[in-house]
Amino acid sequence: MDAVQPRIIVQRDDFDIAAEMSQISGQNRNIGAVVTFSGLCRDEAGTLAALEIEHYPGMAEAEMTRVAAEVLDRWTLTGLTIIHRFGLIKPGENIVLVMAASIHREAAFNAASFLMDYLKNTAPFWKKEHLNTGEERGWVEAKTKDQDAFKRWHSL
Amino acid sequence: MTKLVYFAWVRERIGKGEEVIELDPAIVTVSDLLAHLKTRGEEYAAALEYENVIRVAINQEHVEHDAFVKGATEIALFPPMTGG
Fold it and tell me: What is the ipTM of this complex?
């Protein structure tokens, strides 16, 4: 079996989940499972106008590629797509997409979960909140629970 | 010459996104660099006040504060990441 080439994209524009699904299933017919995770912008109970996502161009792609390589080393996948947006994102819009394909479901579920825990902690993106009042609430703080979710993979 | 790049609130507090500096040979590790930058003015001191939360990448790869800076072409300083 040929090595899977992950599809890694950092972009300002929205992505099309159905098109990404076709892209994955079109390149390999030995896929029994595709796990899709999409992260959306919340409105924080109606208070948030938008998230502004800053990224480190170059390193964002490099880090996503490194995490993808680790995932492909750990689980046998038949397809992998990671897309992360930057710029101004409004509530209800997509922020991130992880799509992991495998022959059976377990590898795809685990790979997608691992990827999200890793991306949150190691991919160079930062969120700033803009409120409906026109004010900036400031930069989102990194959460302990995200760090704990990241660390649990080291003990497995 | 070494390019320094800053992101999120580190960038905002320092007041610029990037700059090019000459690394003094006395600056051996990332910790030395942070200590040196803090002497460059109030804005640097404010940005780097809580030194242990500052994350660092050399040539676009994460490193710890004890990493050597020699040969680095690009050093990035930023807060903990909040993507995803």
Answer: 0.96
